[in-house]
Write a structure and sequence with these properties.
Rossmann fold, binds S-adenosylmethionine, 7-stranded mixed beta sheet, single chain, 399 residues, 48% helix, elongated, two-stranded parallel sheet, 2 domains
Length: 399
């Protein structure tokens, strides 16, 4: 066996173990387990090499996969990406010399015998670069895409067609929808589909401790449903879910995943929440980091937002709220919930607090711990109601 293959195996173990295998990132843990087996068995190593070659062929054959894995050079060396796109776009060879040059360039990208090749530079980048990049989520979007796509090849190949669909959508989003979240990568993830996501849905929902409230008789509205994986989670436990998201690429992401999983009780609504007039009421509404959005595209008056949720909920309905940064200065900037007490005073008119909890960020370098509150709708608006929890109390309990 060539020496370079052993180095490749060790490098992948190092990359997948980079963030201490946390319970919540099962994609990494499966990959580390698999690579350890490969390292200790010649038979497994043989199988691995075949799978790696298919992976290599796949990322070179589809520019939208190439774009995510080699993002760090796509941005800097656009011409490599252009050569690749043109090469696969052409149906027939028009210029044999140019064709040969393209072929050689493409073959050199994944040459593991050459330590200067793009793939080795990428592996080093994944191994050593800082998570916190100058451009938010830049490193992480590459790291997680690489990991998810390899998971589809090494662990669960039946996911590959789905990965093609969702990465193609994420690529279209990256090109056509700016600004976007997580440098174009998936915000919500799910182990079930081998997409780690910046926020793993199962672990995130577990940390909210709300499963007991998700019952099969409930109708749900998820505001700003993003790539739809929380909606999928809810659809398994509740009667039906309306997921409203105005980014068409993310909406489609949710749709193709639901189709893949055979989920049929979600309605993906591609609409701007500003203009959305629900024609029914719900038993549960989610507003997770959505009362104002970091992309700056949803900036509503907080009272009007609470009121809209109040009138859209059934009597006694539940409202799950996730904050932005409650440690912010409280000056009304993007993602600033430092004015939490002011917001709690407003919310108190419409809702009673059932429970609350500070939840831990999944990416320490790029995110903040958030406050989750589960509210119940009041029978009617109580204009002078006083908040029953305060920012000070929340922070004291959290510390
Ligand atoms: C911070 S993300 C939160 C996503 C999701 N609620 C979660 O917590 O996982 C905000 C989401 O709201 C969407 N959004 C922003 N403005 C919107 C609007 N006016 N109408 C509908 N969706 C909107 C964004 O596209 C994005 O997916």
């Amino acid at each position: 066996m060539q020496y370079s293959v052993y180095i490749l195996v060790d490098s992948l173990i190092e990359i997948f173990s980079r963030f201490e295998p946390r319970n919540r990132d099962s994609v990494s843990m499966s990959l580390v387990d698999y690579m350890e087996k490969v390292k200790h068995s010649d038979d497994e190593l043989e199988v691995f090499i075949n799978k790696w070659n298919t992976f290599a062929e796949d990322i070179l054959s589809y520019p939208y996969l190439f774009y995510f894995v080699f993002r760090w050079i796509v941005d800097e060396e656009q011409e490599i990406f252009d050569v690749l796109k043109n090469y696969y776009f052409r149906q027939e060879i028009l210029d044999p010399q140019e064709d040969l040059a393209s072929k050689n360039l493409i073959a050199s990208i994944l040459d593991i015998e050459n330590t200067n090749s793009v793939i080795w530079q990428t592996l080093d980048y994944l191994k050593y670069s800082q998570v916190k990049s100058q451009k938010p989520f830049f490193y992480l979007s590459i790291y997680l895409s690489f990991k998810d796509l390899l998971y589809g090849h090494l662990i669960d190949p039946k996911l590959r067609p789905l990965h093609h669909q969702v990465f193609s959508l994420l690529h279209q989003q990256s090109v056509n929808w700016l600004p976007n979240y997580c440098n174009g990568y998936a915000y919500q993830g799910s182990h079930e589909i081998g997409i780690t996501g910046v926020k793993p849905t199962e672990a995130r929902m577990a940390s909210y401790e709300i499963d007991a409230y998700l019952t099969s008789d409930k109708t749900v509205l998820d505001i700003g449903s993003n790539n739809g994986l929380i909606a999928v989670y809810l659809s398994r436990r509740c009667k039906d879910v309306d997921a409203i998201e105005y980014n068409p690429y993310l909406n489609l992401f949710g749709k193709v995943v639901a189709e893949y999983l055979g989920v049929s009780n979600i309605q993906f609504i591609c609409a701007d929440f500003y203009c959305y007039k629900p024609d029914k009421k719900y038993d549960l509404i989610l507003s997770m980091a959505n009362h104002s959005t970091i992309d700056g595209k949803l900036k509503v008056n907080f009272d009007e937002y609470m009121h809209k949720i109040f009138i859209t909920l059934n009597q006694g309905g539940l409202f799950l709220f996730e904050s932005h940064n409650i440690f912010g200065p409280g000056k009304g900037g993007t993602g600033d919930d430092g004015d939490l007490d002011y917001k709690l005073d407003i919310a108190a008119k419409y809702f009673e607090v059932i429970k609350y909890k500070m939840t831990q960020k999944f990416v320490p370098e790029e995110d903040v711990d958030k406050l989750m509150i589960l509210f119940r709708r009041r029978k009617s608006i109580v204009p002078n109601a006083l908040r029953t929890i305060s920012k000070q109390e929340v922070i004291k309990k959290y510390n």
